[in-house]
Amino acid sequence: MHDRTEDEARPERWAGLARYLSAVVPMLFHGGIMAWVAFREPGRLTALLVDVGLGVAGLALLAGWRRWPLPVALATALLTAFSSTAVGPAYAAYVSLGSLRGWRPLVPAAAVSFACLAVSATSRGIDQVAVVSLTGGSTILAALTALGLYLRGRRDLAASRREAALAARRAERQRIEQARLAERVKIAQEMHDVLAHRISLLSMLAGGLAYRTDLGAQETRELALAIQENAHQSLNELRAVLGTLRRDDGPPEDGPGGADGAGDVGGAGAGGPEAPQPTLAQLGALFDEVRAAGQRVEVADSIEGRELLPPQTGRHAYRIVQEALTNARKHAPGSRVTAELGGRPGGGLRIRVSNPVPPGGPSPGPGGRLGLVGVAERTRMAGGSLSHAVQNGCFVLDVRLPWEGVRRDPTPGRG
User: Quick one: which of 145, 247, 299, 411 has the fewest CB in 10 Å?
Assistant: First the structure.
């Protein structure tokens, strides 16, 4: 920030130096002529000293050119009616007025400057020298008007460029902040999916351990080990998600989980190696895990060419099934869940999960319906469609995800 301010102030300092030089050079010229006249005519020394004094006063008035540009221009112009050395400061103040305020204030300043020029030129009578002086002064005044307006245009152009650069920087910062916010929303969704699954499993296992009185020592030990293992997995997965959040210090980059809309933690640009994300290949382990915890799950899998499913779609499918099983445990504990998976390349992927609705309707529990919101968001990011309804006493969640067909090279023709 300091360097940029210094860069912007440097041209102003050079402009101020040029302004004073443009005022001093004519003063030195006229002062030299007056010194020569004083040397030739000692009797005019007093008048010449007054002339130089007024010129120095005009130079002192230039100190307020930025704060009071019009009064300074008018005051220095009035001095030129009595002092030829004040012409330099008057010209400098006139050009500064045009560069700061544009053409409107130049009108009264030009009128006063011309009037004072006429007074100075005709103070000793109207002759050929006065006419030439008045004509030359008018020409110089017109040139100074054009110069002041030109500098004003340059100033406006530079200001507009600075404003455009600032607006671009603000827009870039806003885009980065929005991208970071979107990335954090994705991480929060990932955290919800992971922890809701693990905590619901822990709740089911702990409930079995608390309420079943027919368990032997070995079965109790197995349940306790399962609780310990799921708690350990919860900590590991939570640590992985929070680690991704801590590493997200720079602007997000396009890549997996970024501009492609994958929405999963651990893509490129997350900053360092990440644990592998689950795909469709890990669904079998997920079903085994929930069955071991006591959830009754029936699976009908008719997917063809599952190895051709894009990993991004596989991640979404895994999380959708995981969230559907979590919802069933939360809202219909103890019910049998049916998961139907089907699809093929070019035909899309279908996930249908159903479970009986308990008497009295599903129990909302804490965070009710947030699971469906997460499933809907994942489905949207994957470009799929979602429907859910109660049919024949069962809650049915139906998700369809796109699955493009495999592109094959055309068979070369025979020569």
Answer: 411
CA-CA distances (angstroms) from residue 317 to 32, 249, 268, 287, 397? 92, 29, 20, 14, 13
Collapsing DSSP states into helix, strand and coil, what is residue 126? Answer: coil
Q: What is the DSSP letter of 404?
A: P
- Give yes or no for a contact between 355 and 336, defined as CB atoms under 8 angstroms apart: yes
User: Which candidate, 175, 75, 95, places its Cα nearest to that of 143?
Assistant: 95
Tell me the per-residue pLDDT of 133-152, one tens digit each, with 9 for 90 and over: 666 667 777 787 887 788 88
What span, in angstroms and rounded, lies between the C-alpha atoms of 206 and 218? 16
CA–CA distance, 405 with 409 (Å, rounded to integer): 13
Please give the order of strands across the beta sheet that includes 297-303.
Answer: 297-303, 337-344, 348-356, 394-401, 385-391
Pairing assessment for the beta strands 348-356 and 385-391 based on DSSP bridges: unpaired
**What pLDDT score was predicted for residue 353?**
95
CB 116, CB 87: distance < 8 Å: no
DSSP one-letter code for 350: E
What number is the average pLDDT over the span 305-330?
Answer: 88
Question: Are residues 153 and 115 in contact, defined by beta-carbon separation less than 8 angstroms?
Answer: no
Secondary structure in 3-state letters for 52-120? HHHHHHHHHHHHHCCCCHHHHHHHHHHHCCCCCCCHHHHHHHHHHHHHHHCCCCHHHHHHHHHHHHHHH
pLDDT tens digit sequence for 167-203: 888 888 888 888 777 766 766 777 777 777 777 777 7
Structure tokens at 141: 């005044």
Find the length of the chain: 415
* Residues 8-46: b if buried by 16+ CB within 10 A, e if exposed: eeeeeeeeeeebeeebbebbeebbeebeeebeeeeeeee
- All structural domains of the chain, each given as residue ranges with its CATH number in brackets, are 2-123 (no CATH), 278-415 (3.30.565.10)
Residue 89 to residue 105: CA distance in whole angstroms: 18
Q: Residue 255: in which H helix or E strand, if any?
A: none
Element holding 374 (H helix, E strand): helix 370-381
Distance of alpha carbon 187 from alpha carbon 24, whole angstroms: 67
Q: How many CB atoms lie within 10 A of CB 111?
A: 12
